Amino acid sequence: MFKMVHHCYNVLDLEKSLRFYDEALGLKEKRRMDTPGFTLVFLGDGVGEFELELTYLKDRTEPYDLGEGEFHLAFETKDLAAAHAKHEAMGCICFENHDLGVYFIEDPDGYWLEIVPAR
Amino acid sequence: MFKMVHHCYNVLDLEKSLRFYDEALGLKEKRRMDTPGFTLVFLGDGVGEFELELTYLKDRTEPYDLGEGEFHLAFETKDLAAAHAKHEAMGCICFENHDLGVYFIEDPDGYWLEIVPAR
Fold first, then answer.
1. Taking CB atoms and an 8 Å limit, are B3 and A52 in contact across chains?
2. Sheet holding A102-106, edge to edge
3. Which of A21, A46, A93, B82 has a 20 to 30 A CA-CA distance from A109?
4. Domains in chain B with CATH codes
5. For B10-36, what is the mean pLDDT?
6. What is the ipTM of this complex?
């Protein structure tokens, strides 16, 4: 009866976030809704159906308080070494878990994103 | 090169969360990893490939600080009225956006989940 369709993060600088998600993860805009107060942009990875929604509140000026930030969106890749090299060059790797063979990158608002090898 | 595969939330009471996600959204356990310090459980909706991961740290006793909580996982349903009645009976509806025709429910840790009509 219920299907997971998207995850949403509020972002402080929409253009900066769109560039980051494109450069770091290849996400592209699929559609957007623009109103006087806010903009919603839905991004797709070109492979799966699930989408990432970015919410931009136009009058927001303060960084978002993420609390402990004990949550993350995960992306799989068939070439973890190439992905790691790319993210290292971008300087966005924030944590490496060598035991599990995964690592995390941080987006412009501080949201953590996990990079895992394809199963 | 990158595909969105799961979202993860840390939860304080694993059994309580598993019951909630099953009862409220029909999510079922697909696999788990258990270690002395933590348990990871991956839930599926039986329709799509995307999974929800719950992370349970065994020595955690304090509720998680979610900050402003300006993020959410979204679920679509073909019968929004039936979903709304079910969640109203469960007492977990925390916000209704009548303009957009969506509403939000809250999980045991306070994570917001959006319920949207299938497109």
1. no
2. A93-97, A102-106, A112-117, A71-77, B3-10, B51-57, B38-44, B28-34
3. A46
4. 6-60+71-117 (3.10.180.10)
5. 98
6. 0.97
